[in-house]
Amino acid sequence: MQDAVSKLKEALGDRVVTDEAALKRYSRDFWPLLMMRDELGKEIQMPLALVMPGSVDDIKAVLRIARESGSTVVVRGGGSSVTGASAGGGSIVMDISNLNRVLDINEYDLTITVESGARLSDVERRLNELGYSLRHIPQSFNYATIGGLIATLSSGQYSTLYGNVEDAVINMEVVLPNGEVTWLRRNNAPRSSTGPPLKFLFTGSEGMLGVVTKAVLRIVPLPPFEKHGSFKFGSFDDGVKALRDLMVKGIIPAVARLYDDRDSMIRFNEDRPLLIISFEGHYEDLVGDLWGRARSVIEEHGGEYAGAGHFEEWLRTRFNVEDDMEKARRFGLWFDTIEVAATWSRLARLHEDMENSLMGIDGVAAVMAHASHLYLNGACIYFTVLFKPDEAIYGKVWDAAMSVAARDGATISHHHGIGMLRSRSMGEELGGAISIIKSIKDALDPWGILNSRRGMFFPD
Length: 460
Ligand SMILES: Cc1cc2nc3c(=O)[nH]c(=O)nc-3n(C[C@H](O)[C@H](O)[C@H](O)COP(=O)(O)OP(=O)(O)OC[C@H]3O[C@@H](n4cnc5c(N)ncnc54)[C@H](O)[C@@H]3O)c2cc1C
What we know:
Layout: H1 2-12, E1 16-17, H2 20-25, H3 32-39, E2 49-51, H4 56-69, E3 73-76, E4 92-95, E5 102-106, E6 111-115, H5 120-129, E7 132-133, H6 146-151, H7 159-162, H8 165-168, E8 169-175, E9 181-183, H9 199-202, E10 211-218, E11 220-221, E12 225-232, H10 236-248, E13 255-259, H11 261-268, E14 274-281, H12 284-300, E15 304-305, H13 309-317, H14 321-330, E16 334-343, H15 344-359, E17 364-375, E18 378-387, H16 391-407, H17 426-430, H18 434-444
The structure holds flavin-adenine dinucleotide.
InterPro entries: Alkyl-DHAP_Synthase (IPR025650), FAD-bd_oxidored_4_C (IPR004113), FAD-bd_PCMH (IPR016166), FAD-bd_PCMH-like_sf (IPR036318), FAD-bd_PCMH_sub2 (IPR016169), FAD-linked_Oxase-like_C (IPR016164), Oxid_FAD_bind_N (IPR006094)
Family: Belongs to the FAD-binding oxidoreductase/transferase type 4 family.
Protein name: Alkyldihydroxyacetonephosphate synthase
């Protein structure tokens, strides 16, 4: 492997970094298991080298050297994966954050063309200055890159109204493992019926099938009008029924987050399930009408208006991840989040089963949840689990969570992806269809160079 590092240095000069402090930073991402190991002073496998390509040609050179030397390459954007997908142990880490230019903003066609290493917050700032937005705002807003969001099938806080990242992506340029560079089609028409849409090969591919180097995404004009508030419910189930009713009747919120009683106590000091909700658009009267209709539907399900303050509190604090981590540490605890999704008829059961099952594990201190990311036929439930920082407990939490999801007919991941964390459960999710993904991987990457380390994506 030393051979690979020397060849990289020969080809890329000082864009190859091997100093220990830098490699240590890239040995982990935001996967709570690796963060816990780091915090407890345990050893984490180091990357072979860090490469910071400055061009598509540099990326091609890295892939060529990996093919020739039999090394693996981990593509890295912002490193905010919570599943170990961008942790670099044992591989060459290719951090593409220097490829970060906004190449074009087309205000008439409502598209942006951007290099994939661009940070979402920078792209969004540029768009906001012109009165536009991607309206794709995940909690990792300040860390994530465009390429990382695409490669993990990300979902943002406004997904109910604007869709998920796959709905925003129109076209991509990718570098394939064999070094070929290609756009996925030769136009940016809003839709095309020309065979299976190739964008779906790369959205969610978690750096295994190719390196996304550029993307064309749809943008929206920033909506000038917005109305928000909150409602308390007698039970989580009543709140879920209200959300379903809103979706069925086409009263589509921009943001809707229904917290169960534990989550709402911790976040808002309210002892009952709490819904925070907003509507937005281009006409004040239309937004007002939506709000009025929503309020009656919510009240029919027992929701009681609880003012605008809770929504505003959420808006102010929604990216304060470090604070949440610090609070858990103060109690000698660690936490992880488990975002699953199911159809409406299964949500109440899923919520109850997950909480009971996780609370039954010795060492788990608290489980709380909120429902968000609504669809016509279901929603995501996002569980936060606090536990003693111990790997055995961590393993039990995930084993239990994945088997509850499978048993209750939920997906094992709504938006965080698979990475190293959920690989073992992929068979339960996809059944025999996992062989289709494996065949595509083998066809595009017969050398097994891209994100192919042990325990990544495919079960052993
Ligand atoms: C505090 C916090 C909050 C979060 N909130 C959300 C949320 O609200 N919604 C959500 O969806 N996710 C969320 N996440 C998860 C994470 O931010 C997302 O998965 C994000 O999409 C990762 O982007 P990144 O640039 O950091 O990717 P990385 O972590 O660098 O990489 C993630 C995966 O994508 C691959 N990849 C990265 N760039 C490319 C590329 N150019 N080409 C090919 N493959 C590539 C990597 O190899 C890896 O497999 C959160 C994470 C944290 C830490």
